[in-house]
Amino acid sequence: MDGVLVIAPRGELLSDLRRTCGIGAMEVTGIMSAVRGVFSRLDPALKVSGATLGSFVNSDPVERGDKLRLMFDGTEVRIVDCLNAIARQANVAWIVVTSDDKPEPKLVKAGVIRARGTSTFVDIHTPNPK
């Protein structure tokens, strides 16, 4: 999909990945800042700017992509399109973790896997459907 290998259970994308992303035409500094921005419409708490907690033992800021500038041209409308843009520009793989909810799972975490196998995730809290 758009030059990125996307593997999905049963060959179909989770409906949350087809929703509108929280990033428009803009430049974002930092891979995880971009990931948080992508999911900010699903979880408004991810819009909060500033420091984030995490453990980066033996992890270099350059390898983490903290200073990497990512460009979004506004054509990345769906969450999956934004994740693919991050993967192409940052040379990372994106991954989402889902619940076992029926009839359709919910997004629980999203993150990236880097070339050396290190990974970083952000928790996603979506409101319960009424």
Offer a few descriptive terms:
single chain, 130 residues, alpha+beta, 3-stranded antiparallel sheet, two-stranded antiparallel ribbon, 3 helices, 5 strands, 18% helix
Q: How is this structure best described in words?
A:
The chain has 130 residues and is α+β, with helices and mostly antiparallel strands. The protein has one domain. The chain contains three helices and five strands, in the order E-H-H-E-H-E-E-E. The strands form two sheets. It has a three-stranded antiparallel β-sheet with strand order 3-4-5, with helices on one face. Strand 4 and strand 5 form a beta hairpin. The longest helix has 12 residues. The relative contact order is 0.23.
Describe the largest sheet. Answer: 3 strands, antiparallel
Elements, N to C (H/E): EHHEHEEE
Q: If strands are numbered along the chain, what order do they take across the biggest sheet?
A: 3-4-5
Number of helices: 3
What percent strand?
15-25%
Radius of gyration of CA atoms, rounded to a whole number: 14 Å
DSSP strand tally:
5
Shape: globular
Helix content: 10-25%
Mean of pLDDT? 84
Which oligomeric form is depicted?
single chain
How do the helices and strands line up, and which of them pair or pack?
Layout lengths: L25 E4 L1 H8 L22 H4 L4 E4 L6 H12 L2 E6 L8 E7 L5 E5 L7
Antiparallel strand pairs: 1-2, 3-4, 4-5
